[in-house]
Amino acid sequence: MIVARLALQSLLNRWITVLLTVLAISVSVMLLLGVEKVRSGARDSFAGTVSGADVVIGARSGAMQLLLYSVFRIGNATNNVTWRSYQDIVSRAEVAWAVPLSLGDSHRGFRVIGTTPDYFVHLQYRGGQTLKFAAGTPFDDLFDVVLGSDVASRLGYSIGDKITVAHGAGSLGPRHDDLPFRVSGILARTGTPVDKSLHVSLKAIEAIHVDWRSGSRIPGQVTPADRLRQMSLPPKAITAAIIGLKARLQVIGFQRAVNEYRAEPLSAVLPGVALQEMWGLVATAETALLGVSAMVVVTSMLGLSAMILSTLNERRREIAILRSLGARPRTVAGLLVGEATVLTVAGIAIGMATLYAVLVVARPIVDRQFGIDIGIQPPSSTDALLLLAISIGGMAAGFLPAYRAYRMSLADSMMVRT
Amino acid sequence: MSAEGPTDAVSLRGVEYKWNARDAFGLSVGEFAVSRGERLLLLGASGSGKSTLLSLLTGIALAQAGSLEILGQRLDALGSSGRDRFRAEHFGIIFQMFNLLPYGNVIDNVLLPLSFAPARRTRAAAAGGTEGEARRLLLALGLPADIGRRTAATLSVGQQQRVATARALIGSPEIIVADEPTSALDDDRQQDFLDLLFGQIDATNATLIMVSHDRRLARHFTRVVELTDILTTSQREGAAT
């Protein structure tokens, strides 16, 4: 008891170096577990976004690219799918439902998506939940728009507000400001890219482009909104479509049918497979990141070992006193291993506390910026194993100084005069 | 704690010692004994082998040849852990200076040896509780009553030596070894210190072995021995001094 208390007081006596060493360990612990949390959070979020969709189709391109621009709304489509091909494909017997997506316009940095009301019925996220309306209804009128929750909250829109849409994805593109949209509904939060999207009907996308050719306005031509409402504006093309099949087993056959479609080159991807492909690509980077974090942990352990070693000379006296009082060399060595272990455990505790504090603060920001929901869960069994490994590493870091102290206490006469 | 049992507190015969095989410095003791209850002063200059002798007596170092008995126990018959335990139970040791763990408080410093010596702990507990016994010794050694919670580093050198003495005495070990305990004190304080030390040693009837270079201390002791009379040291030619 007294020995333990004196050992603790010895640590407090050297609190600055001890604190810095502990902080180095806690930072390394934070990094290692943080990387793991972000990694699994990203995977869950991505997987949750494509929940329920069997196939995504689009113009011929790589599976990942198609998935990224259609579902995750990252990057742009290189080509479109003609409306006729789309209708041809979704009329196949296997298709249970289909949601067309027409991308290309934006509103103050958020993407505008032309689609059909089926979007609100069939899309699922995070374990099969369907989209819900926080307020209002799906679009009904030509100039109705349904907002994702982030769009509404960040831009401060509510039902009935008028907004205009810009051409292209940038917020500074030429604007369709002669044709304002009315907010008809606001979706509940999903934590997916839906939150960052504005949804209008396919016809609306056609309507705002009536007076446009090749990305710029036709001079002098302004078609009034009421006349647009009466026009029949069949969509010419869509960017992609999310499709649900009647039976999962039909997926492979359906995919082949789309890929071999004669009239135009199309691609069909299975979201799960494309995601796997993507994880395969980023796995190297993940491993590298994990490796770097592990090296940081090792570095902090070496720092711990060096810190204790560097105190040995000034503690020679302390060791000699303990020896003269009958402490065994093993006890002296044990004290140093104990010291290393205590500091490591303290570092782990501080690191975990800080990590969770950072997660709580950063979670909404990361979700908003990147659409990645880092779930705040208690440490997993993998985490526990990592922490156990770090504790053992910390204990091992005490072995070298302990061995030196052991040798020292055997070799020193009890009368050290320093 | 009775004076019965083995006759001598310390008995050495034909002891040969070297720190290690290549070491130039060696020490040998022909025949030397200290009776129980003796107050022995060993006189010798530094470098005369006294640290080595004390290391041998307390079992930190082990002689390569000869017989060394403490309270009838041959130290070479004990393992290294056994010698550590033996030292904890039967020796109280006072150094020249820097006796205490500077960051610990006075009471913890005094009680520390009991962590390694169960029999001494039992004795101290029987004498009025370990902490009560520590306070009694501190008071008897002329330290203020409120000193217990102070950090050792804040004490004067003289106070530190008294605390170290209380630590050596607690649980009444049979042999007190003191290595120049007064050399860091000025003359007045030396006298005070020795009076208090002897008072306590008389009370427990312990054996005292003190090493010093200061002949003026001789009058306090029952026997005075020149180190050079009992041991010979060898210094191999060319070795640094």
What does this protein look like?
- The complex is a heterodimer of chains A (418) and B (241).
- Chain A has helices at 2-13, 15-49, 63-72, 83-90, 119-122, 149-155, 202-208, 225-230, 251-259, 271-312, 316-324, 329-370, 381-397, 399-411, and strands spanning 55-59, 81-82, 95-107, 110-115, 124-125, 129-130, 133-136, 144-147, 162-163, 166-167, 181-187, 197-201, 212-213, 216-217, 237-238, 240-245, 266-269.
- Chain A is of the alpha+beta class.
- In chain A, the strands form four sheets. In chain A, strands 1, 3, 4, 7, 8, 9, 10, 11, 12, 16 and 17 form an eleven-stranded mixed beta sheet that branches. A two-stranded antiparallel sheet of chain A has the order 2-15.
- In chain A, strand 3 and strand 4 (110-115) form a beta hairpin.
- The longest helix of chain B has 18 residues, at 187-204.
- Chain B is of the alpha/beta class.
- In chain B, helix 6 packs parallel to helix 7.
- The termini of chain B are far apart.
- Chain B has a single domain (8-235), classed as P-loop containing nucleotide triphosphate hydrolases (Rossmann fold, 3-Layer(aba) Sandwich), CATH 3.40.50.300.
- Chain B is built from eight helices and ten strands.
